[in-house]
Write a structure and sequence with these properties.
about 375 residues; alpha+beta; Phosphatase 2c, domain 1; six-stranded antiparallel β-sheet; five-stranded antiparallel β-sheet; 16 strands; PP2C family protein-serine/threonine phosphatase; protein serine/threonine phosphatase activity
């Protein structure tokens, strides 16, 4: 039996074992299999926390949070890292970065790095599949308790990052453990990406409830196959019918054609849109229209503009601009620098870096709600096999 067939057999055994494992026992089952099949002495899962600031071990103990640590290098660069007898592997499913798997005692004669990377990806798929049925992994990814509003907002998200051959996408909510009304949503079908970013109104659970209503209304319209303008109109009607204009939401809706790079946009009193083209940061000028739910029967007009391969869009909510402005008269210029500096990073790294730069600039954590979303179009490319 050749090595390729042996590897396939080993992977089949591990996959079957994970499928048979209880939802809350995936990592322990994988650790036992890794010891049996590869002779590894230990296996631990580290999940990235809600703030993108710590890698928290599932089994308790100290977290690796210092810049330059092997676990963070693995997470940031998404490749295998060997250090002091430990092999670190990215645990990522379809671009959603869950964390890092640390495997101790790897014998290169028994297993290759490529095989271990496949095992980590297999674990990522299983973690994604069971998260709705157990709280174990969600609880272990928290460094402190979420507020109720934040719990609602994080459960509403489609994910925090997404990667396909033609685009990369990532977003983050701040303050991560106490966010109230700001959020984002996205979907793609291989031909288009739809993105909405909501600048919430109100406080606490009331703000989260209003945002949830808008998000579900937009999803309902999108899934009915409606145009972007009709999606905005349906959500507008849903919010107005419930709140009669007393509450409304600033929202930016985008639709990216993954073949042509054409962006269709509706600025409904929205967060601001920055374009990064090379080293140039440009505020994309859009026609500002009524926020969703402000008036009965608003009509929305889409605009279009063209992206070139490699260009990025950053959607930045008022909380980010306000924090930069309050820190000094050069806040807008500082934000441009942060965006420019993040251009060489993957979208999730870029979002994390931009917010870290902003915290350093204002010399504190962000207090008001803030959202940053990064969308990069790579150009028209056929998808490789999904991971």
């Amino acid at each position: 039996m050749d090595e390729r067939t042996q590897m396939a057999d080993r992977m089949t055994e591990i996959r079957r074992s994970l499928l048979e494992a209880p939802a809350d026992g995936l990592v322990e089952r994988l650790a036992a299999e890794a010891q049996r099949v590869y002779g590894c002495s230990a296996l631990r899962l580290f999940q990235v926390d809600y703030r993108l600031a710590a890698l928290l071990p599932l089994d308790g103990g100290a977290a690796r949070t210092r810049p330059g640590d092997p676990a963070w290098r693995c997470f940031d660069h998404q490749h295998l890292v060997d250090s002091d007898g430990v092999t670190y592997l990215p645990v990522t499913v379809r671009g959603e970065r869950i964390g890092v798997l640390a495997v101790t005692g790897v014998d290169p004669a028994r297993v290759t790095g490529a095989e271990l990377l496949e095992v980590a990806t297999m674990l990522a798929h299983e973690l994604a599949a069971v998260r709705a049925g157990t709280d174990r992994y969600a609880l272990a990814a928290r460094s402190r308790r979420l507020t109720l509003a934040a719990e609602m907002q994080w459960e509403l998200l489609p994910g925090r990052s997404r990667e396909r051959a033609s685009f990369g996408l990532a977003g983050q909510l701040e303050p991560a453990y106490a966010v109230r009304g700001d959020t984002f949503d996205w979907s793609d079908d291989g031909h288009r990406v739809w993105l909405s970013v909501i600048n919430g109104m109100g406080d606490n659970v009331a703000a989260a409830s209003l945002t949830a209503l808008a998000t579900y209304a937009l999803r309902n319209a999108r899934r009915a196959g409606l145009s972007l303008a009709d999606q905005a109109a349906l959500a507008d009607q849903a919010i107005y019918s419930y709140h009669q204009g007393a509450q409304y939401l600033g929202t930016l809706l985008l639709e990216l054609d993954l073949t042509a790079g054409t962006v269709t946009a509706i600025d409904a009193g929205s967060p601001q849109l920055l374009r990064l083209a090379g080293d140039e940061v440009v505020l994309e000028e859009l026609e500002e229209q009524f926020p969703l739910g402000m008036f009965e029967g608003s009509i929305y007009r889409p605009q279009r503009f063209q992206l070139e391969p490699g260009e990025r869009l950053y959607v930045v909510s008022d909380g980010v601009f306000d924090a930069a402005a309050e820190a000094g008269r050069y806040g807008a210029g500082a934000l441009d620098r942060f965006v420019r500096r993040s251009g060489s990073l993957a979208p999730l790294q870029a979002v994390r870096s931009l917010l870290a730069d902003l915290r350093a600039f204002v010399e504190s954590d962000l207090v008001d709600d803030a959202v940053v979303v990064c969308l990069e179009w790579h150009g028209a490319r056929p998808d490789a096999a999904g991971r």
